[in-house]
Amino acid sequence: MYDAKKFVNVVDRMVTVAESMSDDDAVFTELTAALTAVFDIVGTSVLVLGDDDDLHVASTSGAIEAIERCQTAVQHGPAYDAFRGSRIVAVADIARARHRWPQFVDVAAHAGIGGVAAFPLQRGNDDVMGSLVLYSTVSRAWSATDLDATRVLARLAIAQRASAKQLRTMTEVSEQLQHALESRIVIEQAKGVLAATSNIDTEAAFERMRHHARRHRMRLRDVAQAVVDYRVRL
């Protein structure tokens, strides 16, 4: 059974972390630490689908790194079953799953693992993006309440990660548009300066700047800024 008070506290902390996180997987680091504390278990891991279409460990808590190295090496285990089947895989006694994941069970048992539960990581109807795995040192009958609490935290983490990505994309687009606008302003100013000093029209001024930029392998904006600052005469 999970600790309800810790659950409320970690939800609050995850929201706080999401507001200031600087990379996509920071929320998964918080998620693994939170679940380990809420369920009083030995460790938690998040595996995310990479560009090579394989699962890679994004975050772990507790002494389970060796277990995840084994699982990703042999490409079978609870994380892979949850990911491939888009379903929760809960095993109360890991010894009874030896026929399903022989190598994984050997390594997990050697590390003192008694029970395991794996969840697919999925946002709405999107494709499954990875899996979340909980590890207990004792055999554990994962209750419906345990599973529901884990699903809630996992969904929160996925939503926060997606929101952070969207925010960064919007920020990048905004910065690009701002840069383009500033460049356009400088170029228009330079066209006016060049037209006035060379007694040509603005179209000819633009072509002259563009020719200079190509010839000297410069950015058009840099040429325009030099014209405005009277550092170059064309």
From TrEMBL:
Coiled coil: none
Alphabetized UniProt keyword annotations: Kinase, Transcription, Transcription regulation, Transferase
Signal sequence segment: none
Pfam families: ANTAR, GAF_2
InterPro entries: ANTAR, CheY-like_superfamily, GAF, GAF-like_dom_sf, GAF_ANTAR, WH-like_DNA-bd_sf
Transmembrane segment boundaries: none
Protein name: ANTAR domain-containing protein
ANTAR domain boundaries: 167-228
GO molecular function, one term: kinase activity
